[in-house]
Amino acid sequence: MQLDLTPEQRAVQARAPGRMASPLRVVQKSVWNADTPQPEVDELWESATVSELTASESHPRGQPYAIDIPGFALREQSGVGDLAFWYAIGESYAQIAMHFCTTSAPRVLDIGCGGAKMGRFFAMNPRVRYVGLDIFAPAIAWAAEAFRGRPSFEFRHLDVHSEFYNPGGHQRPENVTLPITSGTVDLALCGSLFTHLLEPAFRRYLAEIARVMRGPMLPGARRRGRALVSIHDEPSHGRFSGNEGRIDISRDLFREIVAESGLRIVQHVGNVYGQELFVLERRYRR
């Protein structure tokens, strides 16, 4: 299928004609809209310059009081280059998150925030306080600039090693410590995060989410932290398979790790853009 590329996409493609496939193109990618047929198109973001990865879409740029839209290269890096899908996923997650949130003034932690495709929708609530974390430095650079002047929004780079997205990272993912105070998060967003974590990191991130989430003070207390976690649940062998391009975990192992982390499953929301979405919260402890 021939894709009608934008001038930005053609500029990136022109610099790397016929280049050899990198590991990102060899592995099976964890695509958000996995059930929707997509055009065969190269991973243009890998050849993009830093300025292209931190660029905004030109046509809506600089609108008064509005947040810019990340350019194609940064959107594609997150797995969704198509602008309509990018918007739809972000809006869907924000709506689902607020449905399950237990306060109208939440402290939101977005782990793997990318270009803030979910975060931008929380800007419509002036009572939200939001922190976005990502290991891909250009995403943090873009988001920090796009949200400049919004003091309740903060973006921090996690210098965590990833073969694909941050090969020079100094911290091992299985040892990660989120730069967030314990027990302060009302809403943790983990959209397409655990679909890229090997098992030791998978366990560690869930434990860290349990640490930072607000726990119920009493059984049945209304205000409590919750996390939205998406997974792929069709391992090719055993109960856990894949690499950083795509991770699959069986549901029974997922439930075990959730319980070991001090969390419980509130609800299995269902399939959201090709990934199984669960709502988690901390278990009450006497």
Structure, described:
- With 286 residues, the chain is an alpha/beta fold.
- Helix content is 27%, strand content 18%.
- The chain is built from nine helices and nine strands.
- A seven-stranded mixed sheet has the order 3-2-1-4-5-9-8, with helices on both faces.
- Strand 1 (107-111), helix 6 and strand 2 form a beta-alpha-beta unit.
- The protein starts with 6 loop residues before the first helix and ends with a strand.
Describe this structure in a few short sentences.
The chain is α/β, with parallel strands linked by helices and 286 residues long.
What is the alpha-carbon Rg in Å? 19 Å
**Helix fraction by DSSP (H/I, runs of at least 4):** 25-40%
Q: Count of DSSP E strands? A: 9
The side-by-side strand order for the widest beta sheet comes to 3-2-1-4-5-9-8
- What percent strand? 15-25%
- H and E string: HHHHHEHEHEEHEEEHEE
Unreliable runs: 1-6, 8-31, 33-42
